[in-house]
């Protein structure tokens, strides 16, 4: 039946969620609105077969709601596979809050967001992502227990970013071992794009090992700060993708490996913290492979943060967090070998293993 209210050319807009390109059998999408605090948020629950959907909340000034929706769809899906491949009993979820974290984030808005999270009774558990701090999660904790990444003083595991950075560093070393036959990064030129919470901690590991680190960020203040602390070189050009380098480490936002950048990339390895680095995972994973560039799958090597927050639910200690995060090295090497042996991309190899774990659990649950 067609509607006589909506014009035919607009009908496709009447199917704006399940029809999205990034929609991938997500279980539940929740739109949250509160006029008083100005909250506009979307919670995406992709899959809960392995456990409750856990994933951070991102606050970002999206250009429009389509962008926000697509981001939450892509990010929540990524969380499903991240937890699955890391061996955690967690499903995949994520939330986005539409707005400027610097000017629009208030304790009232965070508490109202927390109430929406609470209304899902634990199907979704939140944490911090871009634009969020541990303090914001503490505010959410005032209204719901379904939050991780809270301060150590109130029983949390603290800021996950240094652990994420350590995992990325481990994944990068594994990729170097695979590409160069040695995991020593001394003397290797590494471009770290985005030196926020994770990027800075990664720069520290890299400079400690003697890598030649170049940094880029949209914040001049951050660049000066990180340069003065670690002696990294600030990137002065305007096309980072065309620069000669050994390793490209995207640590800002996703989709930087795309149609425009892929043919320019000089790096031999792509390994970074950003989620969804491949704009189109089917197309760009294959193109990287054809160009002989080793890609350490993002959802595999940036799992340190989720390992850290999972400790809050499972009560394991810092030693166990570090052991699990260090193991990203072994898992990455296995995935790179697996991809090579099967003639598939590293992204697909990682995805296959994650999907198989979910399918096996589903079979078990249905017995
Ligand atoms: P952050 O907000 O602290 O840092 C992001 C940095 O990137 C900021 O300094 C920002 O100025 C910079 N930036 C933004 N756009 C840029 C651009 N176009 N070019 C260069 N720099 C740019 O975020 P974070 O916590 O460090 O996370 C970084 C990335 O890693 C995100 O994609 C996040 O989703 C992902 N990630 C983070 C964690 C974690 O534990 N924090 C875990 C897994 C994945």
TrEMBL record:
Catalytic class of the enzyme: oxidoreductase
Family indicated by similarity: Belongs to the Glu/Leu/Phe/Val dehydrogenases family.
Domain Glutamate/phenylalanine/leucine/valine/L-tryptophan dehydrogenase C-terminal residue range list: 158-366
InterPro entries: Aminoacid_DH-like_N_sf (IPR046346), Glu/Leu/Phe/Val/Trp_DH (IPR006095), Glu/Leu/Phe/Val/Trp_DH_C (IPR006096), Glu/Leu/Phe/Val/Trp_DH_dimer (IPR006097), Glu/Phe/Leu/Val/Trp_DH_bac/arc (IPR016211), NAD(P)-bd_dom_sf (IPR036291)
UniProt name for this protein: Glu/Leu/Phe/Val dehydrogenase
Organism: Winogradskyella maritima
Entry-linked SUPFAM superfamilies: Aminoacid dehydrogenase-like, N-terminal domain, NAD(P)-binding Rossmann-fold domains
PANTHER family named in the record: LEUCINE DEHYDROGENASE, VALINE DEHYDROGENASE
Superkingdom, taxonomy of origin: Bacteria
EC annotation from Swiss-Prot or TrEMBL: 1.4.1.-
MF GO annotations: oxidoreductase activity
Alphabetic keyword roster: NAD, Oxidoreductase
